[in-house]
Design a protein that fits this description.
Layout: E1 5-8, H1 9-12, E2 19-22, H2 25-40, H3 46-53, E3 54-56
Antiparallel strand pairs: 1-2, 1-3
The structure holds zinc ion.
Zinc ion binds near residues 13, 18 and 39.
């Protein structure tokens, strides 16, 4: 079974219930970046997302 990459936005931004989960790390990062930008107005780099936000589940 493949690992999935998951961002639980509630852990990063309280009051946000957004969760993205994908077996494709690139896709998870892309979706997470789009969400951070559109919903939170934040530019988060790929490395920062990978290190600070994404969990492997
Ligand atoms: Zn969010």
């Amino acid at each position: 079974m493949m690992d999935a990459h998951k961002l639980d936005c509630e852990a990063a931004e309280s009051d946000c219930r957004f969760i993205v989960q994908s077996e494709d790390e690139g896709e998870a990062i892309k979706l997470a970046r789009t969400h951070m930008h559109e919903v939170h107005g934040r530019e988060v780099g790929d490395d920062e997302l990978r290190e600070e936000y994404l969990q492997v589940v």
